[in-house]
Amino acid sequence: MINYMVKSLKRSLKWRLISIIVTILIFTVSTIGISSYMQTRSSVRKDIDHLSMQILKQANMNLNRYYSEYELAFLMLSNSLEVRDWMRVSSPNVSSELIRTYERIKDNYLNRLFLQYPEVLSVSLYNPSGFEQHFVNTYALPLKYTIKNEPYFAQSGNYEKVKFITGISENYIDAANQKMKIPVLTLFKQLSNGYLKIDISLKPSQSVMSQINIANTGSALVMDQEGTIIHHSHSAEVMGQMDDHIVQAVKGQQEGSVFDKSGKELIIFQTIQMTGWKIIAILPYQEIAQSINYTRNVTIVIAISALIISVLLTYFAASSITRRILALRKMMKAMQLTSSFHLRAEVEGVDEVADLSISFNNLLGHLEQSIHDHAETRVLQHRAVISALQSQINSHFLYNTLETINSMTVIAKQSHIGHVAVNLSNMLRYTSDFKNMKVILKEEIKHLENYLMIMKVRFKDEVTYSIEVPEAHLQAICTKALLQPLVENSIKHGRETTGESVHIHIRGEVVQGDKGDKLLLTVADNGPGFSSETLVRLKQEQGDSHAHQYRHNQVGLSNLVYRLHMFYGGEAKITFFNDPVTGGAVVEVMLPLQDSLDT
């Protein structure tokens, strides 16, 4: 089985490609997954510590703000002139002075205090003379209530600063005259042998703790130095007692985190600077482990899913590539067996394999066109040989006939007829010489003049011409029978078609081209010019000549266009247009400048 799989891998490019990519994917995904899990495991613990510490710090700041504002309000009231005056009153009997002091305390401080801090339950003043004054906000105090019954009153002389005291107060009664149990924060301090006490409900500061949600089963709390729970994220735990091992674990430290092995809990704590109490977050380690395990399981699932998807995508990608390569190989074998160059490979996509198929199809197209052109060339060569042999026979007969006609015109004293015969004979000798397909421009102009002399005899003064070629350019090389078809076209579509006289101007000059000097030959007439249909047809025939599409019935300008392309390829250029001033036809032929027949 293993040997068969190894042989299949060696024979199949697809499975070899798939196995290599899958191996790379497994190694990459496994490495990333393991590294990610280890890094995540380490980061989760750090992130939980950091997040819990930040939450505690924010809660600490909020509680400090509450306690600072309470202490500030307490100090402002205790240091006020009105309270000091009240402390100096020696008699508890009602007097106008006592009433004025009471009103000033209430108007200047207490009304504002109760309005700004609605959680303030009561303000109590104890005069050194032994009488008391109580101001309540929400709930009432019994008539027999006295500060001296409070457990902290006996130790009041030991308090140098404002003492923050918490507990469950049973001193308050509601509107139904029922006693209430209210968790309160008491601010207490001795003033000039008297005392000032403010009871504050813990509900506002308790709301700060209730909003802390670090973990689903975790908790946050504030406890004092003795382990009494002052605030708790679960309000039912307020004023309860904290486990002693936790109290001892955080005792004497400002902030940090400890792991409680007995309860398997992570304990993170900070110290509230205002009171010295501890704000603590307790996180069950099982919940932290669940986060880590969840991260591990998610990582494994994602890695396996990604690996499966990658393998499937790799299979389809490899199949797409190898399927097209196999199809291309099949096409090559079919072409080799049948020698059918008309076959084409199917092109799919836009990648390198598609480019390979396109290149193969182009190669087949070029081979097919080359074979077709080669066969057509052989046919043309065969026809040309037959035509040349036939022309030699016909030319020999025509030469003898024209010499006979010339002799008869001499006898009959008709010299003009003899001139026509001589010119025609010269033209036939010029065109039937197949050995020299290129001539100097001087010979081409001589051939053109022979033709024009015949046309002058035929049309008299209705056909006129002028030839403007500098002497220095007469030795330039051009193809045979180049100018005569152009002039013949001017006469045919000028004089013969319209019946009007026509003047033809032939000009030769040397111009500077992109690849050296060029010989520019121009034939222009004053006739009606080319029609738009003719210009379109000639442009199309120029394109056909570049594609080697030659029709054997082509004559005149069409024949000239094809011959120029066959002789010069892309180096020659012929342009047809109408003169913008006279409206006559203009033909420009641009050839590479050559000064030797051997070039």
UniProtKB/TrEMBL annotation:
HAMP domain span: 319-372
Spans traversing the lipid bilayer: 15-38, 300-322
InterPro entries noted in UniProt: Bact_2-comp_sensor_kinase, dCache_1, HAMP_dom, HATPase_C_sf, HATPase_dom, Sig_transdc_His_kin_internal
Signal peptide (UniProt feature, chain positions): none
GO cellular component, one term: plasma membrane
Topology in the lipid bilayer: Multi-pass membrane protein
Localisation per UniProt entry: Cell membrane
Domain of life: Bacteria
Keyword list, A-Z: Cell membrane, Kinase, Membrane, Phosphoprotein, Transferase, Transmembrane, Transmembrane helix
UniProt xrefs under PROSITE patterns: HAMP
Primary site of residence: membrane
GO molecular function: phosphorelay sensor kinase activity
Keyword Repeat: no
Protein name per Swiss-Prot or TrEMBL: HAMP domain-containing protein
Origin species: Paenibacillus oryzisoli
Lineage: Bacteria, Bacillati, Bacillota, Bacilli, Bacillales
